[in-house]
Amino acid sequence: MSEKRGVMLCGHGSRSEEAVAEFAHLSEILRTKLPDYVVDYGYLEFARPILRDGLDAIRAQGVQHIYALPGMLMAAGHAKNDIPSVLNAYQEEIRRNEDPAFTIEYGRELAVDLKMLQAAGARVEEAVEKAGDHISRHDTLLMVVGRGASDPDANSNISKITRMLWEGMGFGWAETCYSGVTFPLVQPGLEHAAKLGFKRIIVFPYFLFTGILVDRIYDHTDKVAANHPEIEFVKAGYLNDHPHVIATFLDRLTEIQEGTGNMNCQMCKYRVQVLGFEEEVGLVQESHHHHVEGISGHGHEHAPHGGHDHHHPHGHRHDHGHDHDGGHDHHHHPYPQADHPLGPKSLLEKGG
User: Fold this and answer.
1) Where are the domains of the chain?
2) What is the CATH number of domain 5-110+243-292?
């Protein structure tokens, strides 16, 4: 490369210090894998450095061209709206005031990918080996737990992950549930699974890092296990820094450079009339995180924020709704299934 280039790893952020440390460690691994690049990272909220800080640190080393990688498993509101909104605003500011040649190119999410499936399978296999072979796979149910989003396409991808793990690893049955926002949530999902008559249930959080939500998944597993002593409940580890996860991030960088990294918009609720989400087609893309950038801990207040309308890197505009480790409202478009008896409303009523 003739010019120095940078790689920016973009995370959501967490109130969990351990989760923030794991994300920072991932950036260190990428730094060792990419010695010819200036690599840094930042978060949307709840942790520092924020995205602007990471971008500033890369630019301080003379970089004019940055490849931004979203540290997201699936493309929901954060990957589609919040991160590109921050990146676009930053690029516009730098071009206008300091460097007209400054460029940020944005990659796609990790998505449903062979390497990610291999990493997931490895985490589940580790849990099976640790639990022992006294219960067969045909007597075992696999419960895959996704983050949960107000984007049905992202949620459906977790179901695809579940099916491919189920069929590939030969479990007797498999189910999908979510930690928040959508349904079924973990506790009702596990209670339903317990009725199916399997001797073992493996609970696998399909998450990149630890945090409040992973803790909640394991806590709810303990609660359901106490109600069903006849079933062996096994907690699998989350993805974290598995080598196949690292390899997928490197693939996303290559996609940007080759111009092949197109986000899947075929079933995007902001682009087409997905059943139940028809009113969200064409909503304005804006980030809802400006007022909480860098804030950590509980009880933060919501300051007014203006909506910036920027063009999305893959050619259409978005808005979104989401839950932050328990739920608060950013004046998003309402999630149409919010009152589902197995979903987000029940989570709030039970206090998480």
Assistant:
1) 5-110+243-292, 114-235
2) 3.40.50.1400
- CA neighbours within 13 Å on the CB side: how many for 93? 10
Average pLDDT, the chain: 85
Q: Who wins on pLDDT, 308 or 164? A: 164
Q: How far is CA 160 from the centre of its chain?
A: 15
Whether the pLDDT of residue 299 is over 80: the answer is no
Task: Out of 3.30.420.40, 3.40.50.1400, 3.60.15.10, 3.40.190.10, select the CATH number for domain 114-235.
Answer: 3.40.50.1400
pLDDT in tens, 185-208: 999 999 999 999 999 999 999 999
* Domain 5-110+243-292 identical in fold to domain 114-235: yes
Question: What does the DSSP 8-state code read for residue 108?
Answer: -
> Residues with Cβ < 8 Å from 58, sequence gap 6 or more?
6, 8, 38, 40, 66
Half-sphere CA count of 32, side-chain side, radius 13 A: 7
Tell me if 309 sits within 8 A of 319, measured CB to CB.
no
The residue behind tokens 């990146």 is 87
How confident is the model over 125-159, as pLDDT tens digits?
999 999 999 999 999 999 999 999 989 999 999 99
Residues 100-112: pLDDT tens digits? 999 999 999 999 9
pTM of the model: 0.81
Closest CA to 13 of 1, 29, 24: 24
